[in-house]
Amino acid sequence: MRASAWLPVSRDAPRDRIDFERYLLDVGLLHQHASGLYVALPLLKLMLREVEAKFSDVMEDQLNAAQIELPTLQAEEFFRSSGRLELFGKEIFRLRDGRSRSYILSPTNEEVVAALIRRYFLPLRADRISLYQIDRKFRDEMGGGSISRAREFRMMELYTVHRSAADVAVWRERIIEVLATLYKGFGCRFDVLVSRETVTSRLYGHRSVEFRVKSRVRTGISDAAGRSLLELAKWSPMGQTYLKQDALEMSCLGAGAIRLLLHLFELEMKEKTYSQDIRIRWPLGILPIAAAVLLPDAGSRFEPSSGALADIYARVPRRLVLLDDRTHIRYSSRVEQLRRLGLRHLFVAGSCGRLRHQDTYLSTECDLNMEEALAKMLEFTHAVSDSRNRVAHGADLSV
After folding, report:
1. Total domains present in the chain
2. To bridge 296 with a disulfide, which of 134, 217, 256, 302 should be the other Cys (CB 3.0-4.6 Å)?
């Protein structure tokens, strides 16, 4: 991949943004289209896709779930029949088509999934059936608008139908086990909260399970000490509310990739105050770029080395290596942006016709000949490509 297409020149972010948003804007990962609406620029989209791929691996390999794709535009009648149209109130986006039929932009999918299951998957021929999707949802919540509570956002949703309430309890423990393994693999520091309330909320049932982390972002949820808490994932039993089938129960799990990135960013920040010299060390596999090859500035004394660097780039998996061909931008500015982005391994022109490897995490560098540089780069690409298989089984990907 070429930086000229994948990595815009970074811009100074407005100072009124939360730290995570300022970082994404500063390093060229994010663009704000309007209040609560964001554009994930190419490298952020790549990071989100990697996290979602790991979600999919866990859903299919560990929980035996099948992926589906639900419509974003949904008939209003589904939500009116369940009674949730009024409960959502002004938090949903409503519209009409050319024939004056009413629709909403999906805020959640219990009603649509329940109708799908009644139509195609009953009678149930196994102990349970699980369907999941990763797609966009829309909510206009009071106090929303930040990247962690955007009006349009992506979420992984897992819907499961159970033969009995006993199976729901077994499934809850399985969900806790699998998600704990996944989040530990990312290096997350979370608490698991099992609600024992018997009051059913408008969206979720009682005895729900939440994976929560401490956060600097104001979320409306806090612990006993008043510290803000961010919800990484939530699982909820829903009884027969949506399926309306005797002896069958339904449950739902929701998890978002952007909140995981926010938590990992805040772990790196710790108690530091945000500044433009902050550098993030993403866990292996979150930023799926093994290395960057920087072509020398146009007209510099290192420009003759461009051919050797381009030749190495041609011999490695290009989807895992970034070729920084923005030779119109000063070399020092490009290096600083890549370091702040979290790229660990940089390959640049060295002295005497050799290439230089810079490890931005350890602040070390060494000169290599072409074959040594190629061997190093292939080693790094192999480590990144192997990370997807390891995270789902609890391997620690933290640096």
Report:
1. 2
2. 302
